[in-house]
């Protein structure tokens, strides 16, 4: 009897749980019913194992896609916050520029309009009541 060994599916990347019975010996003569049944069981096990792996890969793909969508949403929210913060900073900058212009304009006005405070004499009691009799000039006839 002459026999040859042939691999039905690639075994690259498969772990020890993958059935090793995929290396099927085919005889140049007819196979017996026992050998055919053994091969069918082996192939059935291989198919179910591949289906399980396929389902696992599908599940992982869905999870990866969901993570990617969540990341895009977080990125979009971060961009919106950045734009809002930038807009607020620009508004604040414009407000400060207006205030600075007002201060510069005030400083450039003639000093005659500015109020001057005369110094108080030494020892002057600040809490003393001021007399109101000198506020209004007396009429010359009285």
Account of the 3D structure:
The protein has one domain (9-108). The longest helix has 76 residues, at 33-108. The model has no long low-confidence stretch (mean pLDDT 76). The termini are far apart. The protein is mainly alpha-helical and 142 residues long. Strands 1-2 form a two-stranded antiparallel ribbon. Helix content is 54%, strand content 7%. It is built from 1 helix and 2 strands.
Question: What's the tally of helices?
Answer: 1
Give helix % range.
Answer: 40-55%
Q: Main sheet, how many strands, which sense, barrel?
A: 2 strands, antiparallel
End-to-end separation: 155 Å
Q: Beta-strand level of the residues, as a percent range?
A: 5-15%
Region (Disordered): 121-142
Coiled coil: 72-106
Keywords: Coiled coil
Task: List the keywords.
single chain, 142 residues, mainly alpha, two-stranded antiparallel ribbon, 2 strands, coiled coil
